[in-house]
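Anyone up for a design puzzle?
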């Protein structure tokens, strides 16, 4: 039975028969402290008419559902998966649900700031948690466009992957935000961040203009130093656009410090979330912390190209997603920012992390057999990040930095290589 711990075999089954076109998601965040309402319209095709499958849909209950205009019996909904039968070649599935806010940083997290009792929300999709925000085919190779509409208190800011198209006042201190449609992206990097966030705006002008935003809780505003964050961000864009040979693939770039977060940062397309203390320094910090912040900013930014635009088919390639972001963030620090000595930090901290993890019984090959989501959860470690990045660095030393960069930029298999040096 499918459920929270989806398997690679189930994902492969679904992607052999389905192609997803779009998610059109409408959320109402004004339903109280526990529940939010979602209405999702999913358009997808199926190459095997009559096929039955399931959506990943974790929530309180399904209010109603229709497939190609016909009501579906929702009695079989088990809180984790939603089953659909008798698919046509082209399908439109509409699911109206009550979702539950998360208290564990998985799905749509809701936290209350003890300073002023304001509510702050953020979503965490990786590895397989966005299904707690809306029903979807939650696997990286079933990409689709994502169009979001949100009703929320009108003093909030609402942030997603794409820019806000319009904000309409609904009265009763509520507003409705509509966002423009994303390019085709994986479900795990779709995102919603909402609350009365403090924000600062700027713009990067390179191969194209990219609006930049930094957000944090209102009560942290006095500690935010946007100048250095924007400096590293702009240096990162300039560096990656040059080295990857492609303009930034999304429309804007927001960086949001979120509370009650399990990770250092998360590379949601165009809306990166950060552990608060990594982005906002509440006291004087050492240079190492500025280095760590720059590294995190550049790591997440590298994912926009390699991870978000180009994505692993399944989590077996998590190592390459993370190792490449790890390796290229150090390269960008050394070649594109004031942190010229950062390979020393890589060798001292990150490579040592890999050496230590490699001595534990929990060590594993860099390329792991990720048969299900629980296995993936056990592999966000020093092997998948730092040992993988060390091996990539070894490969760079072998073929030469310039050849490696040419390989990254190459879209044709017959590229001539320079002689290694
Ligand atoms: Zn990463």
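Challenge accepted. My sequence:
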């Amino acid at each position: 039975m499918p459920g929270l711990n989806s398997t690679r075999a189930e994902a492969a089954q679904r992607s052999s028969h389905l192609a997803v076109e779009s998610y059109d998601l409408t959320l109402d965040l004004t339903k109280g402290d526990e529940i939010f309402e979602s209405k999702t319209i999913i358009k997808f095709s199926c190459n095997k008419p009559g096929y039955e499958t399931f959506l990943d849909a974790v929530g309180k209950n399904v209010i109603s559902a229709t497939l190609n205009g016909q009501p579906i019996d929702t009695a079989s909904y088990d809180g984790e998966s939603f089953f659909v039968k008798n698919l046509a070649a082209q399908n439109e599935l509409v699911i109206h649900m009550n979702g539950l806010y998360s208290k564990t940083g998985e799905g749509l997290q809701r936290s209350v700031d003890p300073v002023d009792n304001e509510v702050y929300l953020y979503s965490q999709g990786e590895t397989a948690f966005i299904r707690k925000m809306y029903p979807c085919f939650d696997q990286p190779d079933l990409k689709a466009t994502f169009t979001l509409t949100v009703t929320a208190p009108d003093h909030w800011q609402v942030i997603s992957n794409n820019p806000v198209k319009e904000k309409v006042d609904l009265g009763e201190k509520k507003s409705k935000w509509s966002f423009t449609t994303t390019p085709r992206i994986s479900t795990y990097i779709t995102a919603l961040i909402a609350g009365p966030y403090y924000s600062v705006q700027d713009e990067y002008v390179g191969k194209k203009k990219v609006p930049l935003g930094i957000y944090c809780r209102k009560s942290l505003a006095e500690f935010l130093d946007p100048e250095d964050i924007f400096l590293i961000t702009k240096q990162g864009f300039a560096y990656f656009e040059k080295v990857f040979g492609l303009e930034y693939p999304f429309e804007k770039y927001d960086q949001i410090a979120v509370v009650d977060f399990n990770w250092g940062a998360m590379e949601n397309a165009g809306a990166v979330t950060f552990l608060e203390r990594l982005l906002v320094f509440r006291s004087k910090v050492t240079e190492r912390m500025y280095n760590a912040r720059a590294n995190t900013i550049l790591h997440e930014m590298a994912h926009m190209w390699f991870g978000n635009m180009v994505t692993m088919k399944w989590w077996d390639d998590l190592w390459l997603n993370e190792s490449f972001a790890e390796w290229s963030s150090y390269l960008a620090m050394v070649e594109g920012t004031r942190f010229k000595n950062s390979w020393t930090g890589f060798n001292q901290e990150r490579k040592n992390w890999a050496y230590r993890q490699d001595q534990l019984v929990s060590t594993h090959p860099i390329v792991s057999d990720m048969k299900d989501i629980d296995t993936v959860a056990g592999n966000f470690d020093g092997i998948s990040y730092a040992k993988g990045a060390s091996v990539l660095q070894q490969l760079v030393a072998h073929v030469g930095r310039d050849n490696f960069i040419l390989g990254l930029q190459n879209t044709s298999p017959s590229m001539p290589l320079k002689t290694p040096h």
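A detail worth pointing out: The CA atoms of residues 233 and 252 lie 12 Å apart.
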